[in-house]
Amino acid sequence: MGQIALEGMEFFAFHGYYDEEQKIGNKYGVDLYITTDLHASGASDRLHETVNYEVLYRVVREEMLAPARLLEHLAHRVLDRVLEEFPYIEAVQISVSKFNPPLGGICHRARVTLERQRRS
User: Fold this and answer.
1) Could you tell me the residue ranges of all domains in the chain?
2) For the whole model, what pTM was predicted?
3) Which of these, 43, 55, 58, 52, lies nearest to 11 by C-alpha position?
4) Fewest 10 Å CB contacts: which of 58, 82, 99, 120?
5) Which residues make beta-bridge pairs with 107?
6) Cβ distance 11 to 61 under 8 Å?
7) CATH of domain 2-117
8) Is 85 in contact with 59 (CB distance < 8 Å)?
9) Considering 83, 98, 113, 114, which one is annotated as catalytic?
């Protein structure tokens, strides 16, 4: 087993509980960690035997474009899509951060982290 990570992805998107947040938008950060077997690709040096980073990024970007009220829901959607697109991965973990959330005080970011293992 091994891990592939896409860390520090940033998006400007229109998520938030309040209608105003969905109108003005905000900056979000995403860190994604995939657990999968990397032995075949490590030995062969062939892209088709591993997770293509570009496809993984596209999946995250597409979900970030669809508005959500809660970070939890957004993260859940990404987990679903990643597991659907890559049936051979074992587990996925995601952290989604909202920068400068409207809390009435100083907070650099609010973050949720979800993890899911593929069911046998």
Assistant:
1) 2-117
2) 0.92
3) 58
4) 120
5) none
6) yes
7) 3.30.1130.10
8) yes
9) 98
101 φψ region: left (φ > 0), alpha (ψ -120 to 50), beta (else): beta
27 noted as active-site residue: no
CA dihedral of 56, 63, 71, 14, whole degrees rounded to 10: 130
Orientation angle between helical segments 53-65 and 71-85, nearest 10 degrees: 140
Give dist(CA 57, CA 32) in Å, integer: 9
Where the chain has pLDDT below 50, the residues are none
The amino acid at 5 = A
One DSSP character per residue, the chain reads: -EEEEEEEEEEEE---SSHHHHHH-EEEEEEEEEEE--HHHHHH--GGGS--HHHHHHHHHHHHHS--S-HHHHHHHHHHHHHHH-TT--EEEEEEEEES-SSSS--SEEEEEEEEEPP-
